[in-house]
Specification:
alpha+beta, 12 helices
Length: 477
């Protein structure tokens, strides 16, 4: 294939030689070309028109064949970043985009490793070039409005890679795969949270299963609102689910299914190890009681601080203010006592929540201690755990399907990669221009050939006369 790539340079060299020869002959003969003789030369050229037409057609066919073959064998690859943040020079995760990553050493190393290429990273880097449509524009960096961010990049692989037993198209295909995987892994939305694991359920206490499954369900539920705010009407093609509908299903799973399971486990006092569970609940309540006392103490301190304020100071404070419509009014502002009141309310609410949790732990410990420990409730609980796990797995699969469809359709896979195949019309026009130059140069040389031959003969006549005179003088001596 390197020979095919050498055709166009050779044709260009041949055309340059023809043009230089024509220019040289015109410069030599410009003062010696009689008008009638030139017309005669043009008349003799008409006798060679068939030859010129044949040579021109051959030149044209060789040009267009070489150009098309070169473009198909070593095409340029266009990478278009079509997500919204790309126009701002950012990655999908809002970090700064760096175009040098496309041909970075770690990407090229993976390309070589995946394709088992017989060249080094430095050699491969010398064969690859990266350009953008903005490279040819002159940007005025002194004005922010003139700055542009390119979302299209053209990657070209030199045909020199053929020396290493591979092809430019194969190298670009490997580069596209490796870079896309690296880009999605490092900069795209990380959906690994949708992959749930239930290995920890084995041997877990029945009442702890509820908390664990809720934690897993919250992972799914917390992932959906961001997409829902971007496109709340987006719907999966197969299941017909939306982000809002899936969020409601997960909410029902937490508030209904898990609550029913917890009620069943509490009612039957299910536990895998009664003594250990009761000891753990007692220890948890001690910690909760300590935190509750801290909250109640903080509440009392703020109530005491409120009582120390003067009644006149704590009544109200009015400040002259203008609203959004520039209307004047007197606005009441907060004073220190108001902040103390809010903090006291927060501390009391936290102490109340801790008290409820302590009551729940005490009730669970009592239920576990009074349970008969029959096998039938345990079997029902194990069956229910399996059903809840299957249901949560199904919700996880639906979330992944919906999010994957959204990313693929709305962001179109983040990057569109395609090969730029040569245009037949464009290459034909280029070949036609070169053929026109060839016909003009070849025809011009054909016209000037008799006159240039006559010019050379005229130069050789004095030389011959001089040699004859020297020979005569030699004989006379």
């Amino acid at each position: 294939m390197l020979l095919i790539h050498a055709i166009m340079p050779l044709l260009a060299l041949y055309l340059a030689v023809l043009c230089l020869t024509l220019v040289f002959r015109l410069f030599i003969l410009k003062a010696k070309l009689p008008a009638l003789g030139l017309r005669g030369g043009l008349g003799r050229l008409s006798e060679k028109r068939r030859r010129l037409a044949a040579l021109g057609a051959l030149f044209f066919l060789v040009c267009i064949a070489a150009q098309m073959t070169e473009g198909l064998y070593a095409p340029d690859m266009l990478m278009v970043f079509n997500y919204e943040e790309a126009a701002r020079g950012q990655n999908p995760n809002v970090t700064r985009f760096n175009e040098s990553d496309i041909l970075s050493d770690h990407i090229l190393e993976q390309v070589i490793q995946r394709g088992d290429l017989k060249l080094s990273t430095e050699q491969l880097s010398e064969c690859l070039t990266l350009s953008t449509p903005l490279d040819e524009e002159k940007l005025d960096v002194t004005q922010a409005s003139a700055l542009k961010i390119s979302t299209e990049y053209r990657v070209r692989c030199s045909e020199r890679v053929s020396l290493y037993r591979t092809t430019p198209r194969r190298v670009l295909n490997l580069l596209a795969d490796v870079y896309w995987e690296s880009f999605v892994r490092n900069y795209a939305e990380n959906d690994s949270v949708l992959d749930l694991s239930f290995q920890e359920l084995e041997g877990m206490e029945y009442l702890d299963v509820r908390d664990f499954l809720e934690m897993q369900a919250r992972k799914l539920q917390n992932y959906l609102p961001a997409y829902n705010s971007e496109s709340g009407s987006f719907r999966a093609a197969e299941s017909g689910e939306t982000f809002a509908s899936l969020s409601r299903k997960i909410d029902n799973f937490i508030n209904i299914e898990l609550e029913r399971y917890e009620a069943f486990a509490l009612e039957n006092g299910l536990s895998r190890n009664k003594t250990t569970y009761q000891s753990r609940m007692q220890y948890a309540n001690r910690l909760l009681e300590t935190d509750q006392r801290k909250n109640l103490a903080a509440h009392d301190v703020r109530i005491e601080a409120i009582q120390m304020y003067d009644a006149f100071m704590t009544s109200f404070v009015l400040i002259p203010t203008y609203d959004v419509e520039d209307e004047f009014y007197m606005s009441r502002t907060k004073v220190g006592v108001d902040y103390f009141a809010d903090e006291a309310k927060e501390q009391l609410a936290a102490a109340t929540r801790l008290g409820e949790e302590m009551e729940h732990n005490a009730y669970a410990s009592t239920q576990v201690g009074g349970a008969a420990g029959g096998a039938s409730p345990r079997d029902l609980a194990d069956q229910r755990i399996a059903e809840l796990t299957a249901e949560l797995t199904r919700l996880s699969a639906q979330c992944r399907e919906l999010c994957g469809s959204y990313v693929k359709e709305k962001r179109d896979g983040y990057i569109q990669m395609s090969f730029l195949t040569p245009s037949l019309s464009g290459e034909a026009l280029r070949a036609l221009v070169l053929t026109g130059l060839f016909a003009a140069a070849w025809g011009g040389n054909a016209v000037l050939e008799p006159f240039y031959r006559e010019y050379r003969d005229s130069l050789s006549v004095p030389e011959k006369k001089g040699r004859k005179e020297k020979a005569r003088k030699g004989d006379g001596a």
